[in-house]
Structure to design on (180 residues):
C-alpha cells in the first residue's frame, strides 16, 4: 500500500484516481446500453420462432444480459464511490476499512457478472442450437465457454474475454439474419 493506512494517504490516492474511475464508470454505463441493444438483437434472431419455447429462450438470453450489465454497472459504481466522496464532500476523510469494503463489494459484483456472462453464453448456445440458427460448432463453442466464463475471475478473465468475443461473433452473424 503506497499511501499507508492514514486518512490523508487514502484521500491522496482517491483524489488522484478520480478522473480515471469516473471515466471508467461513464464508459461502463454507455457500454451497458449498447450491450443490451446487441443482446436484444441476438435474442430476437437466435431464439427464432414465435412459440413458447422461443419466448423462453429470448427471456433467458435477455435476462442474463441484463444481469451481466447490471452487475458491471454496480461494480463500477462501487469502484467510483470513494473517489467521488473524497472529491465532492468537504472534509471527507476516507477510512481504510471502508475503502477495502467498497473494493470487496465491487469484486463481488464482478463475480456476479462473470456468472451472468456464463448464463448468457449458455442461453444463446441452447437457443441457437434448438432453433437451428447457430451452426453446430458455434453452439458447442458457447457450451464450452459458458462454464469457463462463469469462473473467469479465477482464470485471469481470459474465458470471459473469449465468451465476449464469441458473443460478438454471434452478434455479427445476426446482422445478416432476420428475426421471425
Amino acid at each position: 500500500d503506497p499511501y499507508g493506512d492514514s486518512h490523508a494517504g487514502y484521500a491522496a490516492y482517491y483524489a488522484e484516481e478520480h478522473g480515471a474511475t469516473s471515466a471508467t464508470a461513464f464508459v461502463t454505463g454507455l457500454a451497458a446500453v449498447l450491450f443490451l441493444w446487441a443482446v436484444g438483437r441476438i435474442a430476437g434472431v437466435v431464439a427464432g420462432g414465435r412459440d413458447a419455447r422461443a419466448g423462453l429462450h429470448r427471456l433467458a438470453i435477455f435476462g442474463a444480459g441484463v444481469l451481466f450489465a447490471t452487475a458491471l454497472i454496480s461494480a463500477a459504481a462501487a469502484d467510483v464511490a470513494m473517489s467521488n466522496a473524497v472529491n465532492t464532500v468537504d472534509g471527507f476523510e476516507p477510512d481504510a476499512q471502508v475503502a477495502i469494503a467498497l473494493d470487496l463489494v465491487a469484486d463481488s459484483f464482478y463475480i456476479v457478472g462473470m456468472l451472468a456472462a456464463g448464463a448468457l453464453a449458455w442461453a444463446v448456445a441452447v437457443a441457437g442450437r434448438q432453433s437451428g440458427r447457430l451452426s453446430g460448432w458455434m453452439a458447442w463453442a458457447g457450451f464450452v465457454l459458458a462454464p469457463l466464463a462463469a469462473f473467469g475471475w479465477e482464470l485471469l478473465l481470459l474465458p470471459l474475454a473469449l465468451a465476449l468475443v464469441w458473443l460478438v461473433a454471434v452478434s455479427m452473424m445476426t446482422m445478416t439474419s432476420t428475426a421471425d
Remarks:
- The mean pLDDT is 87.
- The CA atoms of residues 52 and 124 lie 16 Å apart.
